Amino acid sequence: MKPYTDCTDAELVRDARRDPDAFAVLYDRYAQRAVGWARRGGVPDADVLDLVGELFAQAWRSRRRFRDPGDGDAAGWLFGIARNLVARYHRRGRMEDSARRRLGLEIESSAAEIDRVEARLSALDGRVELEAALAALPPAQARAVRLRVVDDLNYAEIGTRLSCTPVTARKRVSLGLRTLRAHLNPEA
């Protein structure tokens, strides 16, 4: 799997033609915003997750028709689909799930499923904040933290990848984690 964290939305949509993991990253970027779009559009909470599921099912089906607006952003494209779904919801008074059915996706609306989706959305909140905090670190510290925490490399391997000693690698990770902790939990 290609690491997609630094890709633009347009690159994710393009790569999703061959690798569904790219679309999962796009979903992670926009699912929470899609919930907000639906709620602001007057969709009751009981139907919001259905609308968001339909949004991404339709986006998946139409990914080949996506055109980059020039800035690599897919928000306008996704918002356009969401706007049409919200309008259709209000016209018909319910959420249609035809795209999900055509894709063969199961529709789950159990309390456990809703809790799971809400937990994932809550985790996305923290992930967005974490990504912003990582981006604010000096590049060497950010890379060292990613290599240690995400890739689970030891300090000798990190030192090799960063062309430094294991002691320097340990220091970069330590400083980076300390800065992240202060940024993410200022009262601690």
Topology (SSEs and partners):
Blueprint: H1 9-15, H2 20-40, H3 45-61, H4 75-92, H5 98-103, H6 111-136, H7 139-150, H8 155-162, H9 166-184
Helix pairs in contact: 1-2, 2-3, 2-4, 2-6, 3-4, 6-9, 7-9, 8-9
Descriptive labels:
Rna Polymerase Sigma Factor, Chain: A, 188 residues, 71% helix
Structure description:
The protein has a domain at 1-108: RNA polymerase sigma factor, region 2, helix turn helix motif (Rna Polymerase Sigma Factor, Chain: A, Orthogonal Bundle), CATH 1.10.1740.10. Helices cover 71% and strands 0% of the residues. It is built from nine helices and no strands. Helix 2 (20-40) crosses helix 6 and helix 6 (111-136) crosses helix 9 (166-184). The model has no long low-confidence stretch (mean pLDDT 80).
